[in-house]
Amino acid sequence: MGLTLFTSPLAQATLLVYEPFNYTSGTAAGPTGNGFLLAGQNGGTGFSGAWSTYTNSSSPITVYPGGTLSGVDYNTAGPVPQTFSGSVTNLPTSGGYFGMGGTNSTDHMQVWRTLDPSVTATFTNGSTTWFSFVSSRGYTANPSGMKLAIGHGRLIEDRGGSASGEAIGGGNGLGSSERNVRKVYPQFWDSVTGSAGETTGSFNNYDVQGLETGTAGLVHYISAPYTASGVPIPTNDTDGLQSMLVTPTDSTPYIVVGKIDWRPNGTPDIISVVRFYQTDTLSEDAFNAAIVAQPLLCSANWPAGVPQPDLDQSKFDTVTLAGGKWFGDELRIATTFPEVVGQTPFVFNASVAPDASNLNINWNSRSGKRYNLRSSTDLSTAPSTWPVVAGAIVPTPPTNSLSIPRPADPKRFYVVEEVAASMVPFFTENFDSGAAGWTTGYDALDTLHTTAWQLGTPTNVGPLAANSPPNCYGTNIAANYGFSSNIWLRSPAINLTASSSGTLQLKQWMYCENATGDSDFGAIRILSAADNSLLAVLEADVEGGDTAWQSYTKDLPFIAFTQPIKLEFRFHSDDYDAPASVPPPPFAGWYIDDVVILVPGS
User: Fold this and answer.
1) How far apart are CA 414 and CA 5, in angstroms?
2) Cα-flanking dihedrals φ and ψ of residue 293, to 5°?
3) Is residue 223 within 8 Å of residue 235, measured between CB atoms?
4) pLDDT per position as a tens digit, 403-418
């Protein structure tokens, strides 16, 4: 009898394009003289030509060596240098980075390059293409960034408002610098909605709002409150992965990851785009969780009547990055999520050893996954469709072993399939049964005690009710919060040491001062249960003016699984309300409900 065990993952991962902008020759440019022009540079992999560039500034688009601070600063009224060094902590980087090369506040730019035919040949119906890039904004007073497009020709407007042919991608929106260019979401370019294969015409930019345009007065702004067919679009700075910036002066680099599911002409393609900060966990589970939390980050969930991308990707040949006042790095296009974020795909080292009556199968395994053993006598069908011999096998890292009866077939094939473990609740609290173990208190610097975390039913101010009535926690449950506050709400001890991954979910309602220079904000932190020392900060600056309860989802960092922890919700207010703040004073504060920690199930 012949026995065969497939020992590699079912999906073949391929990194199609990688551009680290590792250019060290050229004509010196930029105010510091440490950069090189990007135009004409020819490196990286997956291309068949050199970079072309366009900018509406007199300063050239420049490449900076890795580790060199850009130091560009446009804010002449009150300098706050927006610097970038070409690295992020959760993504492998190499080479240099590119972006603004001068001090012109109108620096809008685009760069584009022809893709190798071996790359575009993978854009086939039924296949999936992932893309990613790193961006860091470079102008204090105009918080913009870039977008990526894969298409038939390049984008032709310096903010990416139109294209020379059909295209699809995502990143920063178009329009007011304080509104939708602060958002990261899916976009596509087409001249006739629902048609495919055009080679002439005006290829306008579409997104969840419909048609975008760069014409003054016609730009679609996302300004609160905004709904599309009754679906609310978050617009404040604390709406999770759809918000690009934390504050107007933040220059934290972020990573845009997009997924394109190619469909036949006449069926809309699906584009999903998520923004990750360098403090976030980069995983496909986190990508999917972001879309569950904010469905409009996937075009498949856009409201009825909003145009969908129905494109002819067989004509695509170019990748473009475009936008205003930014630095960019680490462009990747791949067939799987791990490849597009620089992670090495997990490859099984599996073996099979037959004895008189059994097959003994061994393979490498890892936490947070489950394994299926599939088998067939026929290689003409896809292994992912083979019947399951043993399913939902719990990992025992670093290796798993399984013994099954020896089959009677003269020839049989086996494959070990790795799948993500389903997530199940480990810790839940809806605050409706006394909130056992939860504690509140004041920081030593808070001597006035004008605000306190209180358990109860919201009245007078704040949300109309708890997210799951009757109770929630709030900062002064029935009154606006006060001045000079520094208060905390802590969970009981939570022991996650039996898990290696997990996700925090909760509902929050925030209405606090959000003006330049103010210090009213919330923070979500992880403490050691042993001594309440700080282990990690999940969110350093929760602000906004909510009109409804919002969902919050965040993967927990590794340190949360090394020792028992507590969750801490800290709220801070200063001694001043800015008359020009948005929302205007008075302020109801921060409300928390329905806290859940999910871990991989059995």
Assistant:
1) 5
2) -70, -35
3) yes
4) 998 888 888 888 888 7
121 close to 127: Cβ distance less than 8 angstroms: no
Residues 6+ apart with CB under 8 A from 284: 337, 338, 420
C-beta of residue 256 within 8 angstroms of C-beta of residue 322 = no
Task: Provide mean pLDDT across the span 406-432.
Answer: 85
| CB burial of residue 565 (10 Å; 0-12, 13-18, 19+) | buried
* CB within 8 Å of 498: residues ≥ 6 apart: none
CB-neighbour burial class of residue 507 (10 A; exposed 0-12, middle 13-18, buried 19+): buried
Token pair, residue 391, equals 């399913």
Whether the CB-CB separation of 468 and 594 falls below 8 Å is answered with: yes
pLDDT band at 253 (very low <50, low <70, confident <90, very high): confident
Q: How far apart are CA 372 and CA 369, in angstroms?
A: 10
What's the Cα-to-Cα distance from 163 to each of 159, 202, 420, rounded to whole Å? 10, 7, 38
Burial (0-12, 13-18, 19+ Cβ within 10 Å), 106: middle
Cβ-proximal residues to 485 (8 Å cutoff; 6+ apart), any chain = 446, 448, 450, 451, 475, 571, 572, 573
CB-based contact 129:340 (threshold 8 Å): no
Do strands 203-207 and 270-277 pair parallel, antiparallel, or not at all (unpaired)? unpaired
Q: Are the beta carbons of 570 and 585 closer than 8 angstroms? A: no
Q: Which residue has the higher pLDDT, 539 or 35?
A: 539
For strands 411-420 and 2-6, give the pairing. Answer: parallel
Helix (H) or strand (E) holding 428: strand 423-429
Q: Which two tokens stand for residue 247?
A: 């504050």
Amino acid, single-letter form, for residue 471: N
User: 3-state DSSP call for residue 483?
Assistant: coil
Question: Are 589 and 474 within 8 A, CB to CB?
Answer: yes
Euclidean distance between CA atoms 446 and 588, whole angstroms: 19
- 3-class state of residue 82 by DSSP: strand
Map residue 343 onto helix, strand or coil.
Answer: coil
Residue 79: pLDDT above 70? no
Average pLDDT estimate for 73-99: 67
User: What confidence tens digit (pLDDT) does each residue in 436-455 have?
Assistant: 999 999 999 899 999 999 99
Tokens of 577: 């309300």
Distances (CA, A) of 485 to 319, 442, 476: 50, 8, 11
Whole-angstrom Cα distance, residue 366 to residue 418?
Answer: 9
Is the peptide bond preceding residue 307 cis, with omega within 30 degrees of 0?
no
Q: Out of 32-36, 37-41, 162-166, which region has the weakest mean confidence (pLDDT)?
A: 32-36
The alpha carbon torsion through 275, 277, 280, 284 (nearest 10 deg) reads 30
Rounded average pLDDT over 463-492: 96
Give pLDDT, residue 82.
56
Each residue's pLDDT tens digit, 216-232 = 444 344 443 333 334 44
Whole-Å CA distances, 254 to 36, 183, 235: 23, 12, 18
Q: Write down the pTM of the prediction.
A: 0.56
Quote the CA–CA distance of 147 and 268 in Å, as a whole number: 21
User: Whole-angstrom Cα distance, residue 483 to residue 448?
Assistant: 8
At 297 the three-state DSSP class reads: helix
